Amino acid sequence: MTRTFSLTYDYLCPFARNANETVVGMLQNGARYEVTFIPFSLEENHAQDGDVPEWELPIGEVGSGVLALLWSIAVRDSVPESFLDFHVALFASRHDDGADINDEAVLRSVAQSVGLDSDVIRAEVASGIPAKTLAGEHMGVVKDYHVFGVPTFIQDDDAVFVRIMNRHEPADVEKVLEMLSWTNLNEFKRTTIDR
């Protein structure tokens, strides 16, 4: 049986990396999942009332992490067979290399590292279509599921924000998916973490 769910991401968040990278690894190793990866802008989520939404700003003026989201949408929607590799490589660029993922040169390099034509992806971003997609998907999960952060797993009518502490732990993702429909538990938050 195939399990269908969605997973939010923003490349700024290390916990989003842990969850997304683990799910990608599981998919690449044959997990029977049908996953929709949904961009969620933490920059937009922290905007003040009256601010121009991130997706309405000129590309050169978008806030932290937003340009990376636009590039990821362009890859996901125009070259879907390369999305998983690009997705993981972009998280690595941000968290392993400390690269500025709002720098087009960084995004071009990441795209090229997974065999993509960076000029094609740049042109897709410049078309404005990824910005419209970001607006629709971000606002959609806020409206429909009250999403407030990343990573959020969404399955059917249930959504849960989690912070998975380790990378590459499929059992952790499986536990989240198992608990997702357990609605008698609203919040389970450790008061301290020994790390």
Give a verbal description of the structure:
- By secondary structure, this protein is α+β, with helices and mostly antiparallel strands.
- Helices cover 47% and strands 11% of the residues.
- Helix 1 (14-28) links the parallel strand 1 (3-9) and strand 2.
- The longest helix is centred in the C-terminal third of the chain and has 17 residues, at 129-145.
- The chain is globular, with a radius of gyration of 16 Å.
- The mean pLDDT is 96.
Widest β-sheet, arrangement of strands: 2-1-3-4
Mean pLDDT across every amino acid position: 96
Overall spatial form: globular
Instruction: Give the H and E element order.
Output: EHEHHHHHHEEH
* Total beta strand runs: 4
List keywords for this structure.
195 residues, alpha+beta, four-stranded mixed beta sheet, 8 helices
Quick summary of this structure?
With 195 residues, this protein is of the alpha+beta class.
